[in-house]
Amino acid sequence: MSFFLSALGLMMVFEGIPYFCFPQKVKAFAEKLPEIPDSTLRVIGFFLMMIGLLVVYIGGGQNA
Fold first, then answer.
1. Looking at residues 5-26, what average pLDDT do you find?
2. Per-residue pLDDT tens over the stretch 35-62
3. How far is CA 56 from CA 35, 51, 59, 60, in A?
């Protein structure tokens, strides 16, 4: 459970960086987000999930 909480906390840190460093750019991107087709967002989301799984797999292999 502690590993899960650590991973969740680290994810929150990375998610918060753009809002802290570039709030105006985040707002501008959020305004343009409805213009992006759903299929494009799904493809981007899928590849981000796969890259995340790869990073977890590679990182987890070092602890064994």
1. 93
2. 999 999 999 999 999 998 888 888 776 5
3. 32, 9, 5, 6
| Token digits of residue 57 | 């797999």
Question: What pLDDT is recorded for position 61?
Answer: 60
Q: Which two structure tokens, joined as six digits, stand for 3? A: 């590993």
pLDDT at 58: 83
- How would DSSP label each residue in the chain? -HHHHHHHHHHHHHHHHHHHH-HHHHHHHHHHGGGS-HHHHHHHHHHHHHHHHHHHHHHHHT--
> CA-CA distance, 56 to 46, in Å (whole number)?
15
